[in-house]
Amino acid sequence: QVQLVESGGGLVQAGGSLRLSCVLSGSISRINVMGWYRQVTGKQRELVANMYSGGFANYADSVKGRFTISRDNGKNAVYLQMNSLKPEDTAVYYCNAGEPMTGRFDYWGQGTQVTVSS
Question: Which of 17, 19, 9, 31 is closest to 93 using CA atoms?
Answer without folding.
Answer: 9
